[in-house]
Amino acid sequence: MDRFIILSGCSGGGKSTLLEALKRRGYHTVEEPGRRIVVKELKGDGSALPWVDAPAFARRAIATSLMDREEAAAFPGSVFFDRGLIDAASALEHMTGEPALALLGQLHRYNKHVFLTPPWPEINVGDRERRHDFSAAVEEYERLTAAYPTLGYETHVLPKVSVEERADFVLSVLGLS
């Protein structure tokens, strides 16, 4: 869907902060599926956690992303997603070899412009929900940087500037400023 815009890239690169800035500007936003899953699993005794059962976590992220897309269809105008279906499908395929990326990536399209947060060690911090190290985040970034163009997306690496400047950049590329 052309009005669904993905923010992807390096974990800890500022996606959630950018999403919040776009929300303050009046755009509809969808929070990262992975973080929501981790919070829910940690509240219970769930095992669909990336450090316990990564394939189960990726499958849950795919299901959550599909549900997010359905719910977002009711929103008017542009909708910004902090990660989403393609990120989850890429992770599952990387871990298991299951051909999830091509199938899901072609069936459920987003805006052709995808915005990637690059590795930025100065702002990268781990927390209770983000337990992997910076090298794992960089590896994920490299995988996603390769995956999106294979599905026909045009990727834009976000500059390492203030969040407001990043929001301006995104909106300018999309012709929304």
TrEMBL record:
Top-rank lineage group of the source organism: Bacteria
Residue ranges annotated for the NadR/Ttd14 AAA domain, each copy included: 5-166
InterPro entries given in the database record: NadR/Ttd14_AAA_dom (IPR038727), P-loop_NTPase (IPR027417)
Pfam family membership, one: AAA_28
Name assigned to this protein: ATPase
Organism of this sequence: Rhizobium miluonense
Upper lineage: Bacteria, Pseudomonadati, Pseudomonadota, Alphaproteobacteria, Hyphomicrobiales
